């Protein structure tokens, strides 16, 4: 016989959704969600209706039409007869180029400045403070425009390099020209080139892959792999015998020697820029729009990265440094072996945000006429076709994908530097 | 909640939004101001003076429309637009009228859904180079760096011109005329190309205009005119006939000096209908009798506006050329006011 009866089975009533604390919050969330969805649906239907009234229903057909405009910086072949889709692709590549260059430079610069800001040298640490505050507190757009204006106004025009009484001259044995149209540097060329592989036929997404580049990269990666192998062997010997064999020349050799042989076989040489007609021809032309954007974005973002690095380092207790130096480590080894590996865990997550910021800020490119994806798809294409909504939606989607990709990659990296709990 | 009531309310709200957007004239009257899109600054066509008052050839069209509709030529909010932002500004309703050296093209009219209300300047695309470059024809520009405003017809013409002549060039895309001027003067580009009138206007602001030449080639037709959105014909009519009134006034010799006199009645019925002493043209437009009189009195007739802002005796120094009245061998020809 049981003394305790089961509690009476409560019947579910509708009013409980509101009065029962177990259900109330869920009820409100569902209502809020419904309202939100209604609002979104209204916005979408309103937009669609207005567009239909204007006679401009959503239509991505314009992508297949020829763009009609030229783009100065193009990593793939492109001319004005190509489609808007290809113009967008060229713009996308330009965005990725400046973002990659910017992120790399900002990281190197930011880490250096962040570490130096903690230096005991009064002058150096103050200088770094000035740098950080100067760049952090002025909008990046102003830096972009400022650097561009300085380049245009102070560097000589190509015609100043011409004639017997030229007022400007090339640098580094006539291989580099600094002009107000950008910097011309030597370009790597192969006299016995293996040619290109042509992919995707004649479509708008076609591209060429240089076989020379593939071969050189393969040899380089192979060399690094062998070098790693030698290192591991040296580690093993050191562990078992206590003596580390000297391997640096071997490790360097397996990378450099095959590379030199391959480059020689392909007939590697540097093509120098030369003044011909109105402009320099040959060489690689880094346009002043690219340089202004790249410099401004990296200098600006580096200021933030520096602060992140500084905070990361300061988060590691000074006991670690003391313990390491008690073990007899030199200060640069303390930094690279003890402090930075731990600080990275603090540094990497906010660093991701900075990379994302830099990439998104690169859309300010149009201020200096750099033809990124905002300049092509979100600029000229949108303007010539009048497809504002389509272009902007697509642009948002593209930036979203770029940002998510960066986050994913960086999160992997973050996983790999994470504290391994045992 | 009763779902159908809610959805019904939504539909009504949506419809009302649609209806409200249709009557540009009512919007303008309710606002008491005309929102007029102009350039970011092109001396002679549209530029603010030292006191911030906008002046120029295109600005006068805005002012004439404001005078016709609102009775006050100063009831205009000037919205500076770049070659790229102008169409979005008009399509979105941010501006009621765009008067910004805009070329009337098929795709802008048909595909972008705008309505050009006429041509106020017949132009063509030209090239300007420094004299010191020693270039005498655009065909000699192989390999040159060319400054070009993005989002313009001139950008497309440029690509066509170089392609059909089989010569190469390096485009430097620019947002505004001011930036183009800066880059061009610093030698960051060899050539500046845009509408010939724009080149003349830009050159007029240089310290040494004589050091720059405009090459003989005119590579395109650029009929520049004001435009409105598709789908509001009443508003389009008002803008169109205001421009026509300015042109007709020149043809009939109605000037800002004699307009008061002529408005008392003349023995030319066409002038009388224009100025509202005969007929009901104003009423048909949904305006009053004196709409055209106010539009003309604001800054004078087409000829006066031309002479004051861009004519031969102004710093820009453009001749009438194609923009003379048809009676003088030009292309200006206002349809009859009847
Ligand atoms: N007519 C051409 C070009 C118009 C254009 O952009 N003109 C320039 C120079 S004539 C201009 O008005 N610039 C003024 C500004 O930058 O705001 C078009 O409609 O696309």
UniProtKB/TrEMBL annotation, chain A:
PANTHER family for this protein: AMINO-ACID ABC TRANSPORTER PERMEASE PROTEIN YHDX-RELATED, MEMBRANE COMPONENT OF AMINO ACID ABC TRANSPORTER
Name of the protein this chain belongs to: ABC transporter permease subunit
Family: Belongs to the binding-protein-dependent transport system permease family. HisMQ subfamily.
Transmembrane stretches, start-end: 26-44, 87-113, 134-152, 209-227, 248-271, 291-313, 392-413
Keywords per UniProt: Amino-acid transport, Cell membrane, Membrane, Transmembrane, Transmembrane helix, Transport
Pfam family, one: BPD_transp_1
Gene Ontology cellular component terms for the protein in this record: ATP-binding cassette (ABC) transporter complex
High-level lineage: Bacteria, Pseudomonadati, Pseudomonadota, Alphaproteobacteria, Rhodobacterales
InterPro entries: AA_ABC_transptr_permease_3TM, ArtM/GltK/GlnP/TcyL/YhdX-like, MetI-like, MetI-like_sf
Record-annotated ABC transmembrane type-1 domain positions: 92-410
Annotated source species: Antarcticimicrobium sediminis
Membrane topology: Multi-pass membrane protein
SUPFAM superfamilies cross-referenced by the UniProt entry: MetI-like
The keyword DNA damage is annotated on this UniProt entry: no
UniProtKB/TrEMBL annotation, chain B:
InterPro entries assigned: Bact_solute-bind_prot3, Solute-binding_3/MltF_N
Family the entry assigns: Belongs to the bacterial solute-binding protein 3 family.
CDD domains: PBP2_BztA (cd13692)
Keywords of this entry: Signal, Transport
Record-annotated Solute-binding protein family 3/N-terminal domain positions: 33-262
PANTHER family hit by this protein: AMINO ACID ABC TRANSPORTER PERMEASE (PTHR30085), AMINO-ACID ABC TRANSPORTER-BINDING PROTEIN YHDW-RELATED (PTHR30085:SF7)
GO BP: any one term: amino acid transport
Keyword rRNA processing attached: no
UniProt signal peptide: 1-22
Organism whose genome encodes this protein: Antarcticimicrobium sediminis
Transport as UniProt keyword: yes
Name of the protein in its database record: Amino acid ABC transporter substrate-binding protein
Pfam families: SBP_bac_3
């Amino acid at each position: 016989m049981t003394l305790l009866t089961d509690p009476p089975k409560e019947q579910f009533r509708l009013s409980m959704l509101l009065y029962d604390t177990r259900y109330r919050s869920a009820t409100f969330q569902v209502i809020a969600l419904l309202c939100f969805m209604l609002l979104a649906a209204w916005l979408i239907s309103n937009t669609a209706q207005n567009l239909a009234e204007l006679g401009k229903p959503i239509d991505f057909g314009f992508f297949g039409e020829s763009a009609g405009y030229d783009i100065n910086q193009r990593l793939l072949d492109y001319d004005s007869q190509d489609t808007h889709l290809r113009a967008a692709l060229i713009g996308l590549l330009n965005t990725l180029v400046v973002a990659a260059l910017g992120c790399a430079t900002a990281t190197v610069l930011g880490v250096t400045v962040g570490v130096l800001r903690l230096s005991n040298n009064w002058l150096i640490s103050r200088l770094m403070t000035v740098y950080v505050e100067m760049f952090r507190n002025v909008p990046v757009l102003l830096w972009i425009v400022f650097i561009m204006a300085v380049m245009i106004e102070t560097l000589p025009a190509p015609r100043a390099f011409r004639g017997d009484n030229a007022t400007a001259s090339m640098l580094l044995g006539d291989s580099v020209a600094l002009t107000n149209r950008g910097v011309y540097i030597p370009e790597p060329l192969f006299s016995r080139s293996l040619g290109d592989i042509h992919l995707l036929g004649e479509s708008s997404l076609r591209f060429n892959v240089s076989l020379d580049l593939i071969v050189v990269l393969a040899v380089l990666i192979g060399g690094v792999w062998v070098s790693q192998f030698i290192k591991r062997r040296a580690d093993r010997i050191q562990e078992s015998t206590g003596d580390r064999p000297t391997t640096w020349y071997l490790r360097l050799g397996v990378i450099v020697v095959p590379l030199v042989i391959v480059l020689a076989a392909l007939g590697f040489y540097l093509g120098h820029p030369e003044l011909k007609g109105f402009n320099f021809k040959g060489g690689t032309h880094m346009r002043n729009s690219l340089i202004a954007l790249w410099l401004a974005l990296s200098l600006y973002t580096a200021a933030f990265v520096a602060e992140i690095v500084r905070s990361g380092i300061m988060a590691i207790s000074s006991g670690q440094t003391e313990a390491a130096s008690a073990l007899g480590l030199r200060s640069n080894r303390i930094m690279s072996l003890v402090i930075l590996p731990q600080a990275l865990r603090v540094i990497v997550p906010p660093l991701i945000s900075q990379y994302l910021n830099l990439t998104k800020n690169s859309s300010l490119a149009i201020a200096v006429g750099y033809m990124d994806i905002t300049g092509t798809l979100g600029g000229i294409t949108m303007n010539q076709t009048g497809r504002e909504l389509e272009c902007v939606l697509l642009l948002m989607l593209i930036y979203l994908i770029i940002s998510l990709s960066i986050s994913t990659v960086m999160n992997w990296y973050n996983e790999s530097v994470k504290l391994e709990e045992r | 909640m009763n779902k159908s009531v809610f959805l019904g309310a939504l539909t009504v709200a949506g419809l009302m939004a649609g209806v409200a957007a249709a009557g540009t004239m009512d919007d303008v009257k309710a606002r008491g101001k005309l929102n007029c899109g102009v350039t970011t600054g092109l001396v002679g066509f549209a530029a603010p003076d030292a006191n911030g008052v906008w002046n120029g050839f295109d600005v006068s069209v805005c002012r004439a429309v404001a005078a016709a509709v609102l009775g006050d030529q100063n009831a205009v909010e000037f919205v500076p637009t770049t070659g790229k932002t102008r169409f979005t500004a008009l399509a979105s309703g941010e501006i009621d009228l765009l008067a910004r050296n805009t070329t009337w093209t098929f795709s802008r009219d048909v595909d972008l859904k705008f309505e050009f209300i006429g041509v106020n300047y017949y132009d063509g695309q030209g090239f300007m180079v420094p004299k010191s470059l020693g270039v005498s024809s655009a065909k000699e520009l192989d390999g040159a760096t060319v400054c070009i405003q993005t989002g313009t017809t001139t950008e497309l013409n440029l690509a066509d011109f170089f392609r059909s002549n089989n010569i190469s060039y390096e485009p430097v895309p620019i947002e505004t005329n001011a930036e183009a001027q800066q880059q061009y003067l610093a030698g960051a580009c060899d050539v500046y190309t845009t509408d010939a009138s724009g080149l003349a206007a830009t050159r007029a602001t240089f310290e040494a205009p004589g050091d720059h030449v405009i090459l003989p080639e005119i590579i395109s037709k650029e009929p520049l005119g004001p435009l409105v959105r598709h789908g509001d014909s009443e508003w389009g009519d008002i803008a169109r006939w205001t421009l026509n009134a300015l042109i007709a006034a020149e043809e009939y010799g109605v000037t800002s000096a004699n307009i008061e006199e002529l408005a008392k009645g003349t023995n030319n019925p066409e002038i009388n209908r224009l100025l509202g002493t005969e007929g009901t043209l104003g009423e048909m437009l949904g305006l009053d009798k004196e709409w055209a009189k106010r539009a003309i009195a604001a800054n004078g007739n087409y000829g006066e506006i031309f002479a004051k802002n861009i004519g031969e005796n102004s710093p820009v120094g453009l001749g009438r050329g194609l923009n003379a009245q048809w009676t003088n061998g030009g292309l200006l020809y206002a349809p009859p006011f009847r």
